[in-house]
Specification:
The chain is mainly alpha-helical and 45 residues long. It is rod-shaped, with a radius of gyration of 19 Å. It contains 1 helix and no strands. The chain has one domain. Keywords: Membrane, Transmembrane, Transmembrane helix.
């Protein structure tokens, strides 16, 4: 069973991948800002 990779050449796949990566980056940033930064401040005090 051969997989035809050319069906994934459409720009919509790139847009979907970029959206997913963007959401992951935002989640990581919010996790750091909302949890790790306050925890670090608490530990230092």
């Amino acid at each position: 069973m051969a997989i035809d990779i050319s069906e994934f050449d459409h720009p919509a796949w790139l847009t979907a991948a970029g959206t997913g990566v963007g959401y992951l980056l935002i989640l990581v940033l919010l996790t750091v800002l909302l949890f790790l930064v306050p925890w670090g401040i608490f530990v230092l005090l």
